Amino acid sequence: MRDIRNIAVIAHVDHGKTTLVDELLKQSGTFTAHQEVDERVMDSNDIEKERGITILSKNTAIDYEGVRINIIDTPGHADFGGEVERVLKMVDCVLLLVDAQEGVMPQTKFVVKKALQLGHRPIVVINKIDKPGSDADRVVDEVFDLFDQMGASEEQLEFPVVYAAARDGYAKLALEDPNENLIPLFTTILNEVPKPVGADENGLQLQVFTLDYDNFIGKIGIARIFNGTISMGETVLLVKSNGEKVKGRVTKLIGFKGVDRFDIQTAGTGDIVAVAGFETIDVGDSLCDPVDPMPLDPMHIEEPTLSVTFAVNDSPLAGTEGKYVTSNKIDERLTAEMNTNIAMNYEQIGEGKFKVNGRGELQICILAENMRREGFEFSIGRPEVIVRIIDGVKMEPFEHLVIDTPDEFSGAIIEKLGKRKANMTNMVPMGAGSTRLEFEIPARGLIGIRTEFLTETKGEGVMNHSFLEFRPHSGTVESRKYGALVSMENGEAVGYSIFNLQDRGVMFIKPQDKVYNGMVVGQHAKGNDLDINPIKAKQQSNVRSSGADEAIKLIPPRVMSLENALEWIEEDELVEVTPVSIRVRKRDLDPNIRKRTAKKTKFA
């Protein structure tokens, strides 16, 4: 059996997981001297590169001093918590990264809780010690307190600590040591990470923790071998989480090293490999010895908390910008997404309408953004939280919200969140004129708050949240204060008309943009909706008047990104998503139907 170590890198968003994995790959000699390597090489998807976040957990392997180290880079966002949870079962130890300035954050708590429950003893890496505001000793104490709160055992509380600056490529065991390279971290991994238990002589036990898809070979399960060996072409038994058993042949066995994948003939206990040949393979399924099957326990995956309706675009501009516009195409694409994304699910709820359930707004936005880039055209409704009835009581998801803000804005934020049914649980001064506020808030209260929050804190506030639990429904939550400016005509917007309408509110359109009856073209300065005509041009006459041709000055429009639009809309509005544009519209385009519906709602 080879000498193997399996570790996962876990941390809050932006604490440097992917950068650390980059440096480990470089300094272990995995990349040859002439190989050109991108920054954050593990973030392979376009959106990951643009936003600088990790969305999918990915695995890599490095060889160091004759030991194969399998590393799994995980996402830090709460929306992708499902990815982290599964990965932790597949490894024998975790590297817990904590920012030397920010300290313990909500997502740190979430991942630590999961890791400790599985009995891992984390290696704590205090990262970004080169930051001017870093205070490594305080952060080590915070981590210790967190472990203690989470009920860690004596052994887990004796965790090893490494101080690092991943971006500059050095780590050390004491703060006064010189800044050289990552060897102290490699040494700690080899000494502290337990070797995989199990043996090649035992019957095969392999469990799938993430999925991939290839157009030629179909579904691929990325899995860890807990016992036994597996070979290319071997016949094995697939045991599903519901107990169903299917015999099949391994058509492809793939190994990992650095960023490369390559075909291998055989793999043994402790290895992380990709297996193809099973169409129905799913996360949590086991591959076993057909003679004496001993499947592993299926995995528990946290339920979705948010749902949104995807529907066929039926606006007057439908089909003019997208390549795939029919419900069949949308259905196919959603099915393909669910093949590899286990934290989401969907169901058809009507002609051309699909209800997609996920873990948060960001996760759903990323699916919509990917579809849009692939040429899809569709509409999305306002996100809604998934409500459950438990013992006859209506329950809704609550989130643990942590906000870091400059001191002078904390009053305004507490007031704003109070209207959204948030309950403040903690307030700590963080030094350097900054305060940390902690709240428990219904997930509904977080929908549409991000833009307002950034405006309120002049872009300096940082907001993070993670799922807490289901609690009894907490009544109505205040939503958008302003009404919408709705177009009452079809055509192209005209500069003269926009100029005259600017006093009414903030415009979302510019001259020559296509508009239609029922499309939202701006935000009204008051609380009610207003029908306007953005295509009315200046009447020409043959009489010259003084001041006739004064230059009109247009205020630049507010450009709505997909996330902004989803946050902004109300129940009676939709976001129209095409590869070219993102438009906001009313659900009912006819103003008379809208008035009737509004009346019914008011009296209901």
Can you give keywords for this protein?
604 residues; alpha+beta; eleven-stranded mixed sheet; eight-stranded antiparallel sheet; 15 helices; 32% strand; globular
Q: What portion of residues is helical?
A: 10-25%
Tally of helical runs: 15
Average pLDDT works out at 81
Cα radius of gyration in angstroms: 27 Å
What does the main sheet amount to? 11 strands, mixed
Give the end-to-end Cα distance, rounded to a whole number of Å.
70 Å
Structural class by helix and strand composition: alpha+beta
Low-confidence stretches: 32-44
Shape: globular
- Tell me the β content: 25-35%
Count of DSSP E strands?
35
Please characterize this protein's 3D structure.
The structure is a single chain. With about 600 residues, the chain is α+β, with helices and mostly antiparallel strands. It has 15 helices and 35 strands. The strands form six sheets. Strands 18, 19, 20, 21, 22, 28, 30, 32, 33, 34 and 35 form an eleven-stranded mixed beta sheet that branches. Strands 12-11-17-8-9-16-13-14 form an eight-stranded antiparallel beta sheet. The model is unreliable at about 30-45 (pLDDT under 50).
